[in-house]
Amino acid sequence: MPATQLKRLHPKRPMVKNRSLHAAKATKQDEFYTQLSDIEKEMRHYTGHFKNKTVFSNCDDPNSSHFFHYFSHNFEKLKLKRLITTCYKNCDANSRHVDQRGLYLEYAGDKNNNRVPDPDEIGVHKLKGDGDFRSEECVTLLGGADIVVTNPPFSLFREYVEQLVKYKKKFIIVGSLNAITYNDIFKLIRADKLRLGYGFQSGNAYFAVPEAGDYAKGVYDEVTGLVKFSNVSWFTNIDISKRHEDLILYKTYNSDKYPKYDNYAAIEVARVEDIPCDYDGVMGVPLTFLEKHNPDQFEILGLSGNDDYPMTKKYGKKERVVDGVRMKSNTGTLRAVIRMDSFGAGTHFDVGYPVKGVYRRLFIRRKKG
Ligand SMILES: C[S@@+](CC[C@H](N)C(=O)[O-])C[C@H]1O[C@@H](n2cnc3c(N)ncnc32)[C@H](O)[C@@H]1O
C-alpha cells in the first residue's frame, strides 16, 4: 500500500476541514464519523471478548473511520485473529475522486515486531461491487467474521441489525436511541438479544462530519468541526458485565407520587432513579432505563404505543387543550396518559375528562425473588 494511503488509514483526528472529502457521497445524514476516543472508551469494556476473534467493520472508509485504526493498533493487545474492513464507494488513492467500487482491507497482525501496522502488512483489495454491507461479497466476508464493530448508516439501522441477527454475529455498533421504538428492534431488546452498551460520556455523542451542514443551533461546532447528538448509544448482543448489575433503588411507593395511567395497567415513574423498591406491579419508565437494565432484576413487557402491552382503554374522540385553549387535535392515537383534575397549563387532551400525555414509556415489572 502506498504511504499516502497509509496516512489516510491512520487519521489522527477527524478530517473535518477537508471539504472535498466524500463530496460525491450519498445521504448526508449517514456521514457521521466516530471519534477514536469514543471507540477506545467503549471497547475497554469488551476486551475479554476479542481473543482469537475476527473483527469486521463493514461501513468504514479508512479515510474517515477510526475503527480500522483502533483495532489494527490494538491487535496484539486484544489478541485478535484477523481484522477486516470494508468501505462503501471508496475515495481513490488520491483521496479526491470517488470510486463507485468498494474497498476491502485486512490485517492479521504485526509481522516485523515494530508494534505498528505497516503498509505492507495491510492487504488492500478492490471489491467487485460498491461495498454495500448487504452485497454478496460483503455478506461472504461477514460469514467469516466473529464480531462486527462499527457505526453503520443510521438510515439503514433496522436492516443492518436484521442481517447481523440472521447471520448470528456478535456485534458492538452505534445507533440512534430512536431505534428502540422500532418494532423489530424493540422485540430483540425485550427478548434480551440486544442491549445498550456503555454509551457516550454524559449522554452526548460528538461525531466528525465531512463538511459544515445545515444543522439546528448548537448542533455543529465550528471550532471542533463536530456535531453533537444526545440520543445516540452503543448497541450490543455481547454479555457485558453491567447487564448483571442490579439497579439500586431507594424510593418507596405511594399512590400520590406514582399515578396510574388512565389507559394502561401500570403506574407512571417519571425518572429511572425514582423506580420504587417495593412495587411489584407494572411500571412505565423512561427509555433511558435500558442503560441500567439487568434482565434478572426486571422483565420488559412492552412499550407505550406498541401492541405488546395492550392499552386498557381507547378513546373515541379527543380534543387538544393548550393552556386552557381548545384546538383540533392532530395527534394520532394517544400513548400513555394520566387522568387530571382539570385542564391546567401546557398541553392536555379532553377525552370526556382531562388527561395529560407522558413521553414514550417502557413497561417493566420486577422479577420475583
Ligand atoms: C454513520 S457513518 C459512520 C462511518 C464509520 N463507521 C465511523 O464510525 O466513523 C456510516 C457510514 O456507512 C456508509 N454507508 C452508507 N450506506 C452503506 C451501505 N449500504 N453499506 C455500507 N456502508 C454504507 C456511509 O458512507 C458512512 O460512511
Q: Could you characterize the architecture of this molecule?
A:
The protein folds into 2 domains: 3-243; 245-369, no CATH class. The strands form 4 sheets. Strands 5-4-3-2-6-7-12-8 form an 8-stranded mixed beta sheet, sandwiched between helices. The protein has a 5-stranded antiparallel beta sheet with strand order 17-16-19-20-18, with no helix packed on it. It has 6 helices and 21 strands. The chain has helices spanning 3-9, 36-43, 67-73, 136-143, 157-166, 183-190, and strands at 33-34, 54-57, 82-87, 103-107, 122-126, 147-150, 170-176, 195-196, 205-208, 220-221, 226-229, 232-236, 267-268, 282-286, 298-303, 319-322, 325-327, 337-339, 347-350, 354-357, 361-366. Helix 5 links the parallel strand 6 (147-150) and strand 7. The structure holds S-adenosylmethionine. S-adenosylmethionine binds at residues 25, 30-34, 59-61, 64-65, 67, 88, 131-133, 150-154, 156.
Number of strands: 21
Ligand catalogue: S-adenosylmethionine
Radius of gyration: 24 Å
Compute the number of structural domains. 2
Unreliable sequence segments: 1-27, 92-97
Residues in helices, as a percent range: 10-25%
Q: How is the largest sheet built, in terms of strand order?
A: 5-4-3-2-6-7-12-8
Helix count? 6
Order of secondary-structure elements: HEHEHEEEHEHEHEEEEEEEEEEEEEE
Q: What does the average pLDDT come to?
A: 88
Biggest beta sheet summary: 8 strands, mixed
**Distance between the amino and carboxyl termini:** 59 Å
Described by the principal axes of the CA atoms, the overall outline is elongated
- Which percent band covers the strand fraction? 15-25%
Helix/strand/pairing class, anyone?
Answer: alpha+beta
